[in-house]
Design goal:
Layout lengths: L1 H14 L5 E10 L6 E8 L3 E7 L7 E6 L6 E12 L4 E8 L4 H23 L6 H12 L6
Helix pairs in contact: 2-3
Length: 148
């Protein structure tokens, strides 16, 4: 049994083209012109991301994903590449970006990770911030150091 699990983990690891950064922040997901569903990002990489959502999505479904930011929202199209049940009707869903702009994807991943790390450090100091509050503070303090 252990050998089988190890082989499965190795196969999954081999399919990943880039490192995934854990992040827990609100996002919105919609299909076509449907009303966006609120969700939470679980992890993000240069090639895709995963999130939790009430109800399943079919493989190959094209979704619009919106990641909040204070200066502007990041919205992009992605394709569902996996979906698995979690708990109580919630599913974990993995998507791959359709629009491949590696510079943009890399900057977005870095920004989300920096803001999430800022929020985590604030929490360690006893300050509980929403992602939007952390983003506002972080951008106010550090955005001048970001490449344009």
């Amino acid at each position: 049994m252990v050998k089988t699990r190890t082989k499965v983990k190795e196969k999954i690891k081999d399919r990943r083209r880039s490192f995934r950064h854990a992040a827990y922040l609100p996002i919105k997901v919609s299909i076509g012109k449907s009303k966006p569903a609120s969700s939470f990002l679980r992890n993000i990489s240069e090639h895709g991301l995963s999130f939790s959502l009430h109800g399943p999505l079919d493989m190959g479904t094209i979704v619009d994903v919106t990641v909040p930011s204070v200066s502007r929202e990041f919205t992009f199209k992605a394709k569902v590449v996996w979906c698995r049940p979690a708990v109580k009707g919630i599913n974990e869903i993995g998507v791959a970006y359709l629009e491949v702009d590696n510079d943009f994807n890399t900057r977005m991943v870095e920004l989300v990770c920096r803001i999430d790390r800022y929020r985590t450090r604030a929490l360690e100091k006893g300050r509980q911030l929403t992602f939007e509050e952390a983003a506002s503070e972080w951008i106010g303090k550090f955005s001048k150091f970001l490449p344009t």
